């Protein structure tokens, strides 16, 4: 990496403390009204920061983070990619849509293997989230796969549909499953048999991440593979029944179900079948992929492991090569900020709790697992609570803060980055009281952290990856509906310089976004930003 050593910034003077980057996950800048949990919360520290001279709003959604259009919300993955890469890359949703539009998705070896298994009598199983949230998946991409299956005259297809209720309305599942069932019926002609076989809510079925709760994956394995679960005549029947039995239930927490006929599941996964996990986002796809592929799997008793061809929509982990087969090539992330800083000899420390640990490491580093240079870097994970976060909205913010304060005092690391998960994870619950507590917890911890930066004569940079807590509900005809998805509001970007050594001022940057942050960090650390990076937000006077 010697060719990546950064040049020093002319006129820059060293200071004793670190550069500390704080990512307030899910904290956007929304309208100042009672729907905004950030505005309602008591946040004296954040309020003061927003009055700093080095403050600007950043775009954190749509094309600014590589999504197909500005109608698309941002998310933590694309947000941290942009923060760590310093440029905008086409992201999962856009890549898949482009591959479908060109037909390239069906030209590779993976689709050829799927067709071959189908031609030899195997069933094609499509597992993934059924919604148009465009964060983990998009139903139009599922439809494209089904249409190609029909065009290739694949005789037997089973969909294992996971309910969203998080990136879309909390109880919106029927909006997607009713037309899906109708479309499957339309495909079931000329000897074809296309049906939904199983499903469940995303937070309790299949889509766990970061080894947080493998029982979630086990629930999915039982439903999708073994056909074990509460039986219903159809997915729509299952959803309507669960709604009727519990008027308070939301889609993301709906228990798994199995579609049965004559008392038997209609779509277990057997030897010789082909399985596609059609989510494009990686974090909640890795564990189920391991369950299908790993020979030395010990996370739960799979009972039986069918001999299938398994493919992901994309490669979810580029270093570990999970899964082995995939339909769409991943984006090429190279020359990330972490690589440049390691090549330049800068020590770095990254920390978050489990729910966002992968974001300040894997996603920040361009979808690469592990250290870039273990001699220079240290990554710390604080285990998250295994509970719905509205019940403990403070999460592990205090523990993260304690660790960072100790690290600042230790003086070993020049660049420190941390993620406070509260605004996003509690924001997803849609519980206003809990959201306000989450934001106030964040503010309290931020105050403690800034004192440590000040005492070390360092520099603090505070931003966010996308909005969430800034909109707790929407209102129509006097009826309030919880808003549990990310917002498309801008996010704050603040520099608080306690070193008093260099004089930085804001630059005039057209449409500043998250991808401008990496070059800014380079400047704060005394380096000229790489030429290929989007412009820094600051200039050294």
Mind sketching the topology for me?
Elements: E1 19-24, H1 37-40, H2 44-49, E2 55-58, H3 76-85, H4 92-102, H5 109-119, E3 124-129, H6 139-151, E4 156-163, H7 173-187, E5 193-201, H8 214-226, E6 230-232, H9 235-245, E7 257-261, E8 264-265, E9 274-277, H10 286-293, E10 309-314, E11 326-328, H11 337-343, E12 348-353, H12 354-363, E13 377-382, H13 397-410, E14 415-420, H14 422-427, H15 432-456, E15 459-463, E16 473-476, E17 479-482, E18 491-497, E19 504-506, H16 517-524, E20 538-540
Parallel strand pairs: 1-14, 1-15, 3-4, 3-9, 4-5, 6-7, 9-10, 10-11, 12-13, 12-14
Antiparallel strand pairs: 2-18, 5-7, 7-8, 15-18, 16-17, 19-20
Helix pairs in contact: 3-12, 6-7, 7-9, 13-15
Describe this structure as you would to a colleague.
The chain is of the alpha/beta class. It is built from 16 helices and 20 strands. The strands form 4 sheets. Strands 3, 4, 5, 6, 7, 8, 9, 10 and 11 form a 9-stranded mixed beta sheet that branches. A 7-stranded mixed beta sheet has the order 2-18-15-1-14-12-13, with helices on both faces. A hairpin with a 2-residue loop joins strand 16 (473-476) and strand 17 (479-482). The chain is globular, with a radius of gyration of 24 Å. 56% of the residues are buried.
